[in-house]
Amino acid sequence: MRWQEDPILEVQHLKMRFGGLVAVNDLSFSVGRGDITALIGPNGAGKTTVFNCITGFYRPSEGMLSLRHADGTTYLLERLPGHAISWKAKVARTFQNIRLFTGMTVLENLLVARHNPLMIASGFTLLGLFGLPSFREAERQAVEQAKFWLEKINLIDRADDPAGDLPYGAQRRLEIARAMCTDPILLCLDEPAAGLNPRESHELNELLLSIRRDHGTSILLIEHDMSVVMGISDHVVVLDYGTKIADGTPEEVRNDPSVIAAYLGVEDEELDKVEAEVGL
Ligand SMILES: Nc1ncnc2c1ncn2[C@@H]1O[C@H](COP(=O)(O)OP(=O)(O)OP(=O)(O)O)[C@@H](O)[C@H]1O
Question: Whose CA is nearest to atom 26 of ligand 1?
């Protein structure tokens, strides 16, 4: 199992407290390099809180989040500021609710993701923005990369339209493309299939599989749509009330009585009955 042999991310004893509420409690799991890993669980289980800790939106109350690049460089994410998690550690994310710049064009939304390299190429001077060859080259590369992703997500014909005019499913794909324009090694997607129809969710599966195959990007996703989770994940981690209740391949997790019970809202005492019903 890649998540045991070559983890890109190791979450160790993660705890997140909000006042008296413990949203995530002593959570440990690994994400395999090159794997598609799904983090699932009932509403309020703590999934988005885990994402917020990994991507620097929250500082964990306790625990360690170590991200290891292929060359061995390791980043302790809980110690890095948010911008360094994206820029240095190379972790990108999308949000549960779409967060595009709706008044900007589709192309501009992708160019925003190249802000850091563009500013460095400008030498952080106004003159650099107009004159430096390095800036013009960085700008050309940013446009090329954006066009590549627009082709890939079938939005090249809409490049100059405002992002807010796109249909919902296309906006979701654009968000993923924008995250990919930061060249992440770990892509975190918060409910990418939410609100998609079955055709769009099939297209999403294809897009995620091609991101993993063609770019080697590891993917960690939160998802309620089981056709996405069971269809493309290599590894599934299940949370309930902030703790891990299962961790394994989709097949292992699918038949786990505690997972079924958590989803059905069954009390611990009724677990035997659920086990009998699923034939375990
Ligand atoms: N900033 C916050 N302040 C206080 N409580 C919070 C905060 N963020 C999350 N919580 C609480 O932490 C718990 C876990 O929330 P979280 O959003 O992580 O769950 P989730 O598994 O992502 O749920 P869903 O599937 O509904 O998105 C919930 O009880 C939630 O109310």
Answer: 43
Domain of residue 257, CATH code: 3.40.50.300
Query: 16, 27, 49, 226: which to mutate for ligand 1, most atoms within 8 A of CB?
Result: 49
- In the prediction, which pLDDT does 54 show? 97
Q: pLDDT above 90 covers what percent of the chain?
A: 67
Measure the CA dihedral 164/54/240/16, to 10°: -120
Ligand 1 neighbour 237 (Cβ under 6 A): no
The reply to whether 118 and 82 lie within a common domain is no
Of 134-143, 203-212, 248-257, 269-278, the poorest mean pLDDT is in 269-278
Side chain identity at residue 264, one-letter code:
L
Length of the chain: 280
Ligand 1: which residue has its CA nearest to atom 16?
46
Residue 54 falls within a domain, yes or no?
Answer: yes
Ligand 1 centroid – CA 81 distance (Å)? 22
Specify whether 125 is located in the same domain as 6: no
pTM of the full structure: 0.88
